[in-house]
Amino acid sequence: xxxxxxxxxxxxxxxxxxxxxxxxxxxxxxxxxxxxxxxxxxxxxxxxxxxxxxxxxxxxxxxxxxxxxxxxxxxxxxxxxxxxxxxxxxxxxxxxxxxxxxxxxxxxxxxxxxxxxxxxxxxxxxxxxxxxxxxxxxxxxxxxxxxxxxxxxxxxxxxxxxxxxxxxxxxxxxxxxxxxxxxxxxxxxxxxxxxxxxxxxxxxxxxxxxxxxxxxxxxxxxxxxxxxxxxxxxxxxxxxxxxxxxxxxxxxxxxxxxxxxxxxxxxxxxxxxxxxxxxxxxxxxxxxxxxxxxxxxxxxxxxxxxxxxxxxxxxxxxxxxxxxxxxxxxxxxxxxxxxxxxxxxxxxxxxxxxxxxxxxxxxxxxxxxxxxxxxxxxxxxxxxxxxxxxxxxxxxxxxxxxxxxxxxxxxxxxxxxxxxxxxxxxxxxxxxxxxxxxxxxxxxxxxxxxxxxxxxxxxxxxxxxxxxxxxxxxxxxxxxxxxxxxxxxxxxxxxxxxxxxxxxxxxxxxxxxxxxxxxxxxxxxxxxxxxxxxxxxxxxxxxxxxxxxxxxxxxxxxxxxxxxx
Length: 565
Hints:
The structure is a single chain. By secondary structure, the chain is mainly alpha-helical. 63% of the residues lie in helices and 3% in strands. The protein has helices at 2-12, 19-31, 35-47, 54-64, 68-88, 103-115, 119-132, 138-151, 154-158, 161-164, 176-188, 192-202, 267-279, 283-292, 294-297, 305-315, 319-331, 338-350, 354-366, 376-381, 390-405, 409-423, 427-439, 446-458, 462-479, 485-498, 501-513, 520-531, 546-562; strands spanning 219-223, 232-236, 256-259, 262-265. It has a two-stranded antiparallel ribbon with strand order 1-2. A two-stranded antiparallel sheet has the order 3-4. Strand 3 (256-259) and strand 4 form a beta hairpin. Helix 4 packs parallel to helix 6 (103-115), helix 14 (283-292) crosses helix 17 (319-331) and helix 17 (319-331) runs antiparallel to helix 18 (338-350). The radius of gyration is 29 Å and the shape is elongated. The model is unreliable at 374-378 and 380-388 (pLDDT under 50).
């Protein structure tokens, strides 16, 4: 194979390798959807500080991220390129043949991280942009919103809102997914007030500034703490949309839609709202909000969204809740659909709630719905038509089931604090937050461990990561779950750096058992940077004790696994 021949030549006669030949080969391999050999050639070119031109590099990444394996490799290679730029630092002359990735390459990789379910890696890639001075665009922001929503990083996503609220009205539709993700996070954090405030903004209340103020050409958001002098700052251009983009993020319209020039709350979004307010026993506030955002709820002239909510409550058997909303809407002078009254009345009779039925009849007469139902025969002849919106009722039922399965909002809060502390390099505070989480019996998740591992790694505290691996195994056993692949890969890389090869092989074995892709070249490169000659000429017979014998065996097993002679 051409790739194998190239690697052989690079070892034996590197002078024969011509840049033009390598460019043609890497592009051909990428187009043929052979990601592993593609990564081999690209890494070889990076090693020689002679990457392809920006146009060719874009094409290579474009083809690599079409597959899951290619996405794993592309994200690792992008990280390696960025690390190379950082190491070169101020030495501008060293950058001559090293092509700097642009926003399009970052968007391709970030988009693939969303598509193939690697949000933690996406977070890691996003943080590389300010480190090498790449400015994000409008596409990047939407992709980042999806990543933050999956990782439940509400505080980080909220930082974009002030700037995005000021984009021109012609661009508001582009950020529909941003607002969808932010609303989803408010619900995940059990923040019904935050969700309500956002909806009031989106429906065009008098307090809304969306599309109303002059938009800045460039904005900057901090990553982690706003007060960190040395923290990362991501610059983005909220109005920059490339017309010739070669990627398209899957359109997510879960809670908030954009139709006919306005935001519309979906049935699923309305269901979350109803469940949230009912759970917190704030029905009166729900009623007022429904009236305030009616324009956002109504999708047709025949629709009566507030009445739909009443009917859904009746369908679910929440008769007193339905009656409370009905009374609240009357006090707000809202015209309620007649069918909602009759549906509730029928439900009262079905449940033999005579007293409540009589009260509702008096109420109906007050609003001009004249009825004489004193005679039982007349009651039978009433046209009590089913008007309840079964779609909304079914959405509410699904939402309540989903809520039982969702991670506690307290876990998201703990993770946000841990992330903040790790970015500020306040690892003792991060550790104490983690311990508090354990004491309160809140099970950590993938994000918890990922933030802690990266925090410890940034300070070279590899021993602490071995302790976390023990916690991870107990957590996986307790929850009967397997975390994201990128979490195990970051463990492998850090255990290699720390020289914990028994742990390296243990995690690799776990990944193989669970069918996870292993980027052997990445692990090999990490090993050679730090442990190139470790136990290279030492045999088992030369070991001084049992501990060294075991370590030597683990190192040799790793060398064999990644192909180091």
